[in-house]
Task: structure prediction
Amino acid sequence: MPIVPPLRNAPIIATKRLKRSENRRKTPTPMFAPPASPHARLSDQKANPVNPIPDFSRGQAFPGTSGLLPAIAQDVANGRVLMIAWMDERAWRETVETGQAVYFSRSRGKLWRKGETSGHRQRVEEIRVDCDADAILLKVQQTGVACHEGYESCFFRRVESDFSVNIADTRRLDPDSVYGKST
Amino acid sequence: MPIVPPLRNAPIIATKRLKRSENRRKTPTPMFAPPASPHARLSDQKANPVNPIPDFSRGQAFPGTSGLLPAIAQDVANGRVLMIAWMDERAWRETVETGQAVYFSRSRGKLWRKGETSGHRQRVEEIRVDCDADAILLKVQQTGVACHEGYESCFFRRVESDFSVNIADTRRLDPDSVYGKST
Result:
């Protein structure tokens, strides 16, 4: 539940943008027409500001990509934030098309099909994009653990108000057993 | 609950790094000594890899900052991912010291004390950093709504497998009432 209950009960107020269509005002969760093509050009997105798909031209520059956007993976079962990684447009398309999380590895400079080495894949249950169309949220079914250090979540370290750092979670497995020479 | 139950019951296996200290092996959630100073230099972090605080030298370059790292805000009450923004080292320090979320606004090129205009502040209940020390997770008590468009979360658009986009959430308030001239 949110912190300020009155907001939950507030009427749904359409903004100027939504007021362009009367139909949209009547529908709490309006369905928009899909882009002309899954590979719609960025100019198409800009022409339809109420229906943005991720705008990779606004992403972090990286050689060989159209830009990188941050992608958060959240465990659909328990709500934990598992990790954050980066997507270029190819990773984005493959993720949407296959339902398996695919990122762009900055260190390796290529597509990273999560779990391709470890087997710890992420099946994508839901995809969200943010208001600025420059960040992605994946709700995933995580096989095994998300973190290469063997923790359920990469965010296993807690920072206290005195800036000290604790390991706040329990390691689930030995990373060497997953990433060792024999696997 | 995780997808693969056996991992939950697996023994806690210390890695080579943890084996350096016998005490650490006995403690599932070991407490580490805080840095010498809250303003510890980056070289100190690198000398103590098991106790990293965010390494802003690894962040996205931006004029006037030591680097920007992504910071995810998650609602501590219901687990929703509310937004993602950026922090430089000053924003990070102020966030930890004050317990209120402070980001760095790339569009305005300055510190952004979340809620300073809207009143929709984020009280920080817990801070996590990730395994690579280049991403931050804030668990927050959100006053009002996180999104400047009036939604509880900035991630209010859902993307379907055919790349179509729906608004999947209900708008909580009219942004004009918050960001209008009179407020």
